Amino acid sequence: TEAIFRNDFNGIYFKTVDWGYIRNGYVYLKSRKKEMINVGGKKVSPIEVEEVLNQIGVVEESVCVGMADPGNVLGEVVKAFVVVSDENLSDTSICSYVQSKLENYKVPVCIERIKEIPKTPSGKIQRLLLK
Q1: Around Cβ 118, how many Cβ atoms within 10 Å?
Q2: Dist. CA 6–CA 98, nearest whole Å
Q3: pLDDT tens digits for range 3-39
Q4: DSSP secondary structure, 82-107, as one string
Q5: Which of 44, 48, 52, 55 has the fewest Cβ atoms nearer than 10 Å?
Q6: Is the full-model pTM beyond 0.85?
Q7: Which of 71, 68, 78 is closest to 45 using CA atoms?
Q8: What span, in angstroms and rounded, lies between the C-alpha atoms of 99 and 113?
Q9: Cα–Cα distance, 89 to 84 (Å, whole number)
């Protein structure tokens, strides 16, 4: 077990492949490192974008993944899959809302509407099925 612990100027820590932060003594996990989306060298947590998408009243559920940049400039861009209860909600409205809450590079460039998010029997989102 000693091999999985590290010791540096910050003290002893356990190295994982998770991205997160500590605030007020609590550890908050934002995403798995392998799920991070690399948009022009900037890291985007899909969970951060999903949390904003899920604030939209008619968005029942969402999941974000990285996709190849159609313009071949940024490497990857954010693609959102959404389950909505109102088909009249436009993609433009969705993107405008996200843009009002997050930086531009985190705004989905592609939105795909689906009937349900693929999940394991235990309820974990199967992101790889959506890539």
Answers
A1: 14
A2: 38
A3: 566 667 666 666 665 666 677 887 766 556 667 899 9
A4: EEES-TT--HHHHHHHHHHHS-GGGS
A5: 55
A6: no
A7: 78
A8: 19
A9: 8
